[in-house]
Protein backbone atom coordinates (compact mmCIF):
# COMPACT_ATOMS: atom_id res chain seq x y z
CA UNK A 1 0.00 0.00 0.00
CA UNK A 2 1.35 3.42 -0.97
CA UNK A 3 1.90 6.17 1.58
CA UNK A 4 -0.95 8.20 0.09
CA UNK A 5 -3.32 5.24 0.21
CA UNK A 6 -2.34 4.44 3.81
CA UNK A 7 -2.90 8.08 4.80
CA UNK A 8 -6.32 8.04 3.14
CA UNK A 9 -7.22 4.81 4.96
CA UNK A 10 -6.22 6.24 8.33
CA UNK A 11 -8.33 9.34 7.64
CA UNK A 12 -11.33 7.16 6.72
CA UNK A 13 -10.86 5.01 9.84
CA UNK A 14 -10.57 8.07 12.07
CA UNK A 15 -13.77 9.52 10.57
CA UNK A 16 -15.61 6.23 11.16
CA UNK A 17 -14.44 6.04 14.80
CA UNK A 18 -15.41 9.67 15.42
CA UNK A 19 -18.89 9.03 13.99
CA UNK A 20 -19.20 5.91 16.16
CA UNK A 21 -18.18 7.90 19.27
CA UNK A 22 -20.67 10.63 18.38
CA UNK A 23 -23.45 8.04 18.16
CA UNK A 24 -22.51 6.81 21.63
CA UNK A 25 -22.75 10.35 22.98
CA UNK A 26 -26.23 10.73 21.45
CA UNK A 27 -27.24 7.23 22.64
CA UNK A 28 -28.14 6.33 19.05
CA UNK A 29 -28.04 2.53 19.18
CA UNK A 30 -28.80 2.08 15.49
CA UNK A 31 -25.96 4.35 14.44
CA UNK A 32 -23.56 2.72 16.88
CA UNK A 33 -24.36 -0.75 15.57
CA UNK A 34 -24.09 0.40 11.95
CA UNK A 35 -20.34 0.77 12.54
CA UNK A 36 -19.90 -2.89 13.52
CA UNK A 37 -19.66 -6.03 11.47
CA UNK A 38 -22.42 -8.63 11.82
CA UNK A 39 -20.10 -10.90 13.80
CA UNK A 40 -18.46 -8.13 15.86
CA UNK A 41 -16.95 -9.51 19.07
CA UNK A 42 -16.95 -7.35 22.20
CA UNK A 43 -14.88 -7.72 25.36
CA UNK A 44 -16.50 -4.95 27.38
CA UNK A 45 -16.11 -3.75 30.96
CA UNK A 46 -19.47 -5.27 31.87
CA UNK A 47 -20.29 -9.00 31.96
CA UNK A 48 -20.30 -11.41 30.19
CA UNK A 49 -16.71 -12.16 29.27
CA UNK A 50 -17.56 -12.14 25.56
CA UNK A 51 -20.52 -10.61 23.76
CA UNK A 52 -21.79 -9.68 20.31
CA UNK A 53 -22.92 -6.23 19.22
CA UNK A 54 -25.36 -7.53 16.60
CA UNK A 55 -28.46 -7.19 18.83
CA UNK A 56 -29.45 -3.62 19.76
CA UNK A 57 -31.56 -4.76 22.74
CA UNK A 58 -28.70 -4.83 25.22
CA UNK A 59 -27.30 -1.53 24.03
CA UNK A 60 -30.71 0.17 24.21
CA UNK A 61 -31.19 -1.20 27.74
CA UNK A 62 -27.81 0.20 28.80
CA UNK A 63 -28.58 3.58 27.24
CA UNK A 64 -31.86 3.69 29.18
CA UNK A 65 -29.94 3.65 32.50
CA UNK A 66 -28.55 7.13 31.75
CA UNK A 67 -30.17 10.55 31.95
CA UNK A 68 -29.57 12.74 28.91
CA UNK A 69 -26.64 12.35 26.51
CA UNK A 70 -23.39 10.63 27.43
CA UNK A 71 -20.00 12.24 27.73
CA UNK A 72 -17.62 10.16 25.62
CA UNK A 73 -14.22 11.18 24.34
CA UNK A 74 -11.12 9.45 23.03
CA UNK A 75 -7.61 10.56 23.92
CA UNK A 76 -4.33 9.51 22.29
CA UNK A 77 -6.11 7.77 19.42
CA UNK A 78 -3.53 5.80 17.41
CA UNK A 79 -4.41 4.01 14.16
CA UNK A 80 -2.39 1.40 12.26
CA UNK A 81 -3.65 -0.01 8.99
CA UNK A 82 -2.45 -2.45 6.37
CA UNK A 83 -4.56 -3.78 3.54
CA UNK A 84 -8.09 -4.50 4.74
CA UNK A 85 -7.22 -4.71 8.45
CA UNK A 86 -6.63 -1.92 10.97
CA UNK A 87 -6.17 -1.48 14.70
CA UNK A 88 -6.92 1.57 16.81
CA UNK A 89 -5.99 2.20 20.44
CA UNK A 90 -7.06 5.03 22.73
CA UNK A 91 -7.87 6.06 26.27
CA UNK A 92 -11.64 6.48 26.53
CA UNK A 93 -13.47 8.72 28.99
CA UNK A 94 -17.10 7.95 29.82
CA UNK A 95 -19.18 10.33 31.92
CA UNK A 96 -22.82 11.07 32.65
CA UNK A 97 -25.61 10.80 35.19
CA UNK A 98 -27.40 7.53 35.91
CA UNK A 99 -31.15 7.37 36.37
CA UNK A 100 -30.64 6.99 40.15
CA UNK A 101 -28.68 10.26 40.23
CA UNK A 102 -25.21 8.72 40.52
CA UNK A 103 -22.52 10.66 38.66
CA UNK A 104 -20.07 8.57 36.60
CA UNK A 105 -16.67 9.63 35.31
CA UNK A 106 -14.39 6.83 34.19
CA UNK A 107 -11.23 6.43 32.11
CA UNK A 108 -10.52 3.07 30.51
CA UNK A 109 -8.42 1.50 27.75
CA UNK A 110 -9.95 0.86 24.32
CA UNK A 111 -8.72 -1.25 21.41
CA UNK A 112 -10.66 -1.58 18.16
CA UNK A 113 -10.01 -4.06 15.37
CA UNK A 114 -11.47 -2.93 12.04
CA UNK A 115 -12.11 -4.51 8.66
CA UNK A 116 -12.50 -2.77 5.30
CA UNK A 117 -15.83 -3.82 3.76
CA UNK A 118 -17.81 -2.75 0.69
CA UNK A 119 -19.60 -0.35 3.06
CA UNK A 120 -16.41 1.16 4.43
CA UNK A 121 -14.40 0.46 7.58
CA UNK A 122 -16.34 -1.51 10.21
CA UNK A 123 -15.49 -2.49 13.79
CA UNK A 124 -14.98 -6.27 14.02
CA UNK A 125 -13.55 -6.39 17.54
CA UNK A 126 -13.93 -4.06 20.53
CA UNK A 127 -11.88 -4.53 23.69
CA UNK A 128 -12.30 -2.40 26.84
CA UNK A 129 -10.29 -2.82 30.04
CA UNK A 130 -9.12 -1.19 33.24
CA UNK A 131 -6.09 -2.21 35.30
CA UNK A 132 -6.56 -3.61 38.79
CA UNK A 133 -4.59 -2.91 41.93
CA UNK A 134 -1.83 -5.42 42.64
CA UNK A 135 -2.08 -5.03 46.43
CA UNK A 136 -4.10 -8.20 46.90
CA UNK A 137 -7.46 -6.44 46.87
CA UNK A 138 -8.02 -7.14 43.13
CA UNK A 139 -10.10 -3.95 42.96
CA UNK A 140 -10.52 -2.36 39.55
CA UNK A 141 -8.44 0.83 39.32
CA UNK A 142 -11.31 3.05 38.16
CA UNK A 143 -9.86 6.08 39.95
CA UNK A 144 -7.06 6.51 37.39
CA UNK A 145 -6.81 9.16 34.69
CA UNK A 146 -4.21 9.81 31.95
CA UNK A 147 -2.08 11.84 34.38
CA UNK A 148 -1.96 9.10 37.03
CA UNK A 149 1.47 7.73 37.85
CA UNK A 150 2.52 4.60 39.69
CA UNK A 151 4.92 5.00 42.59
CA UNK A 152 7.04 1.90 42.08
CA UNK A 153 9.01 2.68 45.24
CA UNK A 154 5.92 2.63 47.45
CA UNK A 155 6.04 -0.27 49.92
CA UNK A 156 3.73 -3.18 49.24
CA UNK A 157 1.00 -3.99 51.71
CA UNK A 158 2.10 -6.83 54.01
CA UNK A 159 0.08 -10.05 54.02
CA UNK A 160 -2.94 -9.98 56.34
CA UNK A 161 -3.90 -12.95 58.48
CA UNK A 162 -7.34 -14.49 58.71
CA UNK A 163 -10.45 -14.10 56.61
CA UNK A 164 -11.37 -10.47 56.03
CA UNK A 165 -14.99 -9.37 55.52
CA UNK A 166 -15.46 -7.02 52.53
CA UNK A 167 -18.84 -5.26 52.74
CA UNK A 168 -20.73 -3.62 49.87
CA UNK A 169 -22.73 -0.96 51.72
CA UNK A 170 -25.07 1.79 50.54
CA UNK A 171 -22.87 4.62 51.85
CA UNK A 172 -19.33 3.52 52.63
CA UNK A 173 -18.24 6.93 53.95
CA UNK A 174 -21.15 7.15 56.41
CA UNK A 175 -20.67 3.50 57.40
CA UNK A 176 -16.97 4.02 58.16
CA UNK A 177 -17.73 7.09 60.29
CA UNK A 178 -20.43 5.23 62.20
CA UNK A 179 -18.11 2.31 62.89
CA UNK A 180 -15.63 4.80 64.32
CA UNK A 181 -18.22 6.02 66.81
CA UNK A 182 -19.82 2.66 67.56
CA UNK A 183 -16.88 0.25 67.52
CA UNK A 184 -13.79 2.45 67.78
CA UNK A 185 -12.83 1.76 64.14
CA UNK A 186 -9.57 3.27 62.92
CA UNK A 187 -9.40 4.10 59.23
CA UNK A 188 -6.24 2.85 57.53
CA UNK A 189 -6.88 3.75 53.90
CA UNK A 190 -9.54 4.88 51.45
CA UNK A 191 -9.73 5.27 47.67
CA UNK A 192 -12.37 7.31 45.87
CA UNK A 193 -14.00 6.56 42.55
CA UNK A 194 -13.65 9.01 39.69
CA UNK A 195 -16.83 10.83 40.83
CA UNK A 196 -15.00 11.89 44.00
CA UNK A 197 -17.90 10.68 46.17
CA UNK A 198 -18.16 6.91 46.21
CA UNK A 199 -15.48 4.75 47.77
CA UNK A 200 -14.02 1.89 45.78
CA UNK A 201 -12.08 0.82 48.88
CA UNK A 202 -12.03 1.62 52.59
CA UNK A 203 -9.84 -0.28 55.06
CA UNK A 204 -10.80 -0.15 58.74
CA UNK A 205 -9.23 -1.75 61.80
CA UNK A 206 -11.68 -2.76 64.54
CA UNK A 207 -10.62 -4.60 67.69
CA UNK A 208 -7.27 -5.38 66.04
CA UNK A 209 -8.80 -6.93 62.90
CA UNK A 210 -9.40 -5.66 59.36
CA UNK A 211 -12.75 -4.80 57.81
CA UNK A 212 -13.11 -3.57 54.20
CA UNK A 213 -15.93 -1.48 52.73
CA UNK A 214 -16.95 -0.17 49.32
CA UNK A 215 -19.92 1.58 47.76
CA UNK A 216 -22.15 -0.12 45.19
CA UNK A 217 -21.23 0.28 41.53
CA UNK A 218 -24.32 -0.94 39.67
CA UNK A 219 -22.99 0.38 36.36
CA UNK A 220 -20.23 -2.25 36.64
CA UNK A 221 -22.44 -5.10 37.83
CA UNK A 222 -22.05 -4.55 41.59
CA UNK A 223 -25.42 -3.23 42.85
CA UNK A 224 -26.30 -2.96 46.52
CA UNK A 225 -28.14 -5.92 48.04
CA UNK A 226 -29.60 -6.15 51.57
CA UNK A 227 -27.16 -7.99 53.85
CA UNK A 228 -28.29 -11.35 55.16
CA UNK A 229 -26.99 -14.67 56.37
CA UNK A 230 -23.93 -13.50 58.30
CA UNK A 231 -22.94 -11.92 61.62
CA UNK A 232 -19.75 -9.96 62.35
CA UNK A 233 -18.46 -11.08 65.76
CA UNK A 234 -16.43 -8.92 68.12
CA UNK A 235 -14.73 -10.99 70.82
CA UNK A 236 -13.74 -8.45 73.48
CA UNK A 237 -12.72 -8.16 77.12
CA UNK A 238 -15.58 -5.95 78.29
CA UNK A 239 -18.86 -6.75 76.55
CA UNK A 240 -20.84 -4.09 78.41
CA UNK A 241 -18.48 -1.24 77.41
CA UNK A 242 -18.55 -2.23 73.73
CA UNK A 243 -22.31 -2.76 73.83
CA UNK A 244 -23.11 0.57 75.49
CA UNK A 245 -20.88 2.53 73.09
CA UNK A 246 -22.51 0.92 70.05
CA UNK A 247 -26.06 1.47 71.33
CA UNK A 248 -25.26 5.09 72.20
CA UNK A 249 -23.99 5.60 68.63
CA UNK A 250 -27.27 4.31 67.18
CA UNK A 251 -26.99 0.51 66.89
CA UNK A 252 -30.22 -1.41 67.53
CA UNK A 253 -30.24 -4.27 70.04
CA UNK A 254 -31.77 -7.34 68.37
CA UNK A 255 -30.66 -9.94 70.94
CA UNK A 256 -30.08 -8.76 74.52
CA UNK A 257 -26.60 -8.95 75.99
CA UNK A 258 -26.70 -11.68 78.62
CA UNK A 259 -24.91 -14.81 79.75
CA UNK A 260 -25.44 -17.41 77.02
CA UNK A 261 -25.86 -21.15 77.59
CA UNK A 262 -22.17 -21.78 76.85
CA UNK A 263 -21.07 -19.39 79.61
CA UNK A 264 -19.98 -16.16 77.82
CA UNK A 265 -21.70 -12.82 77.53
CA UNK A 266 -23.36 -12.62 74.13
CA UNK A 267 -25.72 -10.25 72.36
CA UNK A 268 -26.48 -9.00 68.86
CA UNK A 269 -26.85 -5.50 67.41
CA UNK A 270 -27.96 -4.23 64.02
CA UNK A 271 -26.24 -1.12 62.72
CA UNK A 272 -28.09 1.56 60.67
CA UNK A 273 -26.79 -0.04 57.45
CA UNK A 274 -28.37 -3.44 58.13
CA UNK A 275 -25.25 -5.31 59.28
CA UNK A 276 -25.65 -7.60 62.31
CA UNK A 277 -22.91 -7.62 64.94
CA UNK A 278 -22.33 -10.07 67.77
CA UNK A 279 -20.65 -8.92 70.99
CA UNK A 280 -18.88 -11.74 72.82
CA UNK A 281 -16.88 -11.61 76.06
CA UNK A 282 -16.00 -14.01 78.87
CA UNK A 283 -17.83 -13.65 82.16
CA UNK A 284 -15.33 -12.23 84.64
CA UNK A 285 -14.89 -14.39 87.72
CA UNK A 286 -15.32 -12.64 91.04
CA UNK A 287 -12.67 -13.34 93.68
Description:
It is a single chain. This protein is α+β, with helices and mostly antiparallel strands. It folds into 3 domains: 3-129, Nuclear Transport Factor 2, Chain: A, CATH 3.10.450; 136-145 and 162-225, Signal recognition particle alu RNA binding heterodimer, srp9/1 (2-Layer Sandwich), CATH 3.30.720; 230-287, 2,3-Dihydroxybiphenyl 1,2-Dioxygenase, domain 1 (Roll), CATH 3.10.180. The protein is 21% helix and 41% strand. The protein has 5 helices and 14 strands. It has helices at 3-26, 29-34, 56-63, 172-183, 239-249; strands spanning 36-43, 51-52, 66-82, 85-98, 103-117, 120-129, 165-168, 186-192, 199-206, 209-214, 232-235, 252-259, 264-270, 276-282. The chain has a 6-stranded mixed sheet with strand order 2-1-6-5-4-3. Strands 7-10-9-8 form a 4-stranded mixed sheet, with helices on one face. Strands 11-14-13-12 form a 4-stranded mixed sheet, covered by helices on one side. Strand 8 (186-192) and strand 9 (199-206) form a beta hairpin. It is elongated, with a radius of gyration of 26 Å.
- Strand order across the biggest sheet? 2-1-6-5-4-3
Summed up, the helix count is 5
Strand content: 35-45%
Q: In the CATH hierarchy, what is the class of the largest domain?
A: Alpha Beta
Helix content, binned percent:
10-25%
Amino acid sequence: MSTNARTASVADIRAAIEDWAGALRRKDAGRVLSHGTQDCVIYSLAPPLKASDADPGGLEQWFSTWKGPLGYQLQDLEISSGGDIAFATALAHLSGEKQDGAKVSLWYRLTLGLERTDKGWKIAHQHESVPFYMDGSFKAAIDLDPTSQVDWNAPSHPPMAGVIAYLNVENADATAKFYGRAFGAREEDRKYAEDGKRLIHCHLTINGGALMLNDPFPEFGFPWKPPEGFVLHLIVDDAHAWWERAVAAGAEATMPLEIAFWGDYYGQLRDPFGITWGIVAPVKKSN
